[in-house]
Specification:
alpha/beta, about 20% strand, about 190 residues, seven-stranded mixed beta sheet, 6 helices, globular
Length: about 190
């Protein structure tokens, strides 16, 4: 069983925030894979799907970003899922908008959701970093930037990016981390 966790904040006011790109990709994947409605488990919205022969849990923690590790740790324990079968999708300000990178066993880079997951389960798991870019206004705080909605004029690019992130996630599920990294980190 694979655990695919998209990070974000719950509630309608955060839906299209840059910080919620992980949630947006999970929603798109759930729709594409015909997932049934989500149920609440371990303080997260969870949808179970089948990809090939693999059972996959698509997860959106509902603890708010800074406590994401609580849901991840609980689901891993309940379903007996190891770190090798965990993929976390999250926003990354150090990547330009629409760029993505697979990484494994790296530091949190100041991302509080990742920091909490590291604290609860360790760092030796796979991540799909989803580029949201940095503020164009130098004095803007990064925290304020990621809590803003994506720009209206970037809606088409955003939809394409979410689709590509979904393809990357499916590649990870079907062919493993190394293959997904080799294919998608070259873009």
């Amino acid at each position: 069983m694979k655990l695919i966790v998209g990070l974000g904040n719950p509630g309608p006011k955060y839906t299209f925030n840059r910080h919620n790109i992980g949630f947006l990709v999970i929603d798109a994947l759930a729709h594409e894979l015909g997932a049934s409605s989500a149920k609440t488990e371990c303080q997260a919205l969870v949808q179970k799907v089948k990809v090939g022969v693999d059972d996959v849990l698509l997860v959106k923690p509902q603890t708010f970003m800074n406590l994401s590790g609580t849901s991840v740790q609980g689901l891993m324990a309940f379903y007996k899922i190891g770190l090798d079968d965990l993929l976390v999708l999250h926003d990354e300000v150090d990547l330009p908008f629409c760029k993505l990178r697979f990484q494994r066993n790296r530091g949190h880079g100041g991302h509080n959701g990742i920091r909490d997951i590291h604290a609860k389960v360790g760092s030796d798991y796979s991540r799909l970093k989803l580029g949201v870019g940095r503020p164009t206004v130098p004095q803007m705080e990064v925290a304020d930037f990621v809590l803003q909605n994506f720009a209206k004029e970037s809606e088409k690019e955003l939809a394409e990016f979410i689709g590509r992130a979904g393809e990357a996630t499916l590649c990870y599920i079907e062919q493993g981390f190394q293959k997904a990294q080799n294919v998608f980190n070259k873009e």
